[in-house]
Amino acid sequence: NRRGEIRVPVKEEFEFSENPWYEYENQFVSTNQDGALVSISESGKITREALGLAKGHRITATPKTLVSLSENSLRIKDKEVTLDFGLYTEPQIFYLNNKLYISVTDLQAQRVYIFDSNAQLLPDFPVFGTSGIDLGNADSDGDLEFVVQGDQNTILIYQFPGS
User: What is the mean pLDDT of residues 134-148?
Assistant: First the structure.
């Protein structure tokens, strides 16, 4: 807690992955080095769920949505998408206009992918980009825009209507 005292007592030691901790389904979640989802309740109860994630996997979460990227497999909630093999940025979740958007960028192919919460690739994607993105409404219209690095010393702004 904020006073330095133990807030959630845990009676085990773990070898965690490099993923941070998130709140998901009223629990604290992260993954271990074996690719299992580790959940800890506020009372300290520990559960593990084997997700079959490879070494170097990445996760991110909101209170109701878990997203994982393991090699070329992107999992959004209970839906899985197989991406081309590549070197991907960690997945990002954006919640805008009452919708979830999940993005990853293939740094080798220089392509940005944005999916909805049902793991459907948005129309006209992927697009050119060489970094992770920042998604939001950058102007006064109702359409969303995202910013991504283009070539060296270049920043691109994409707009997608009907968002």
Answer: 89
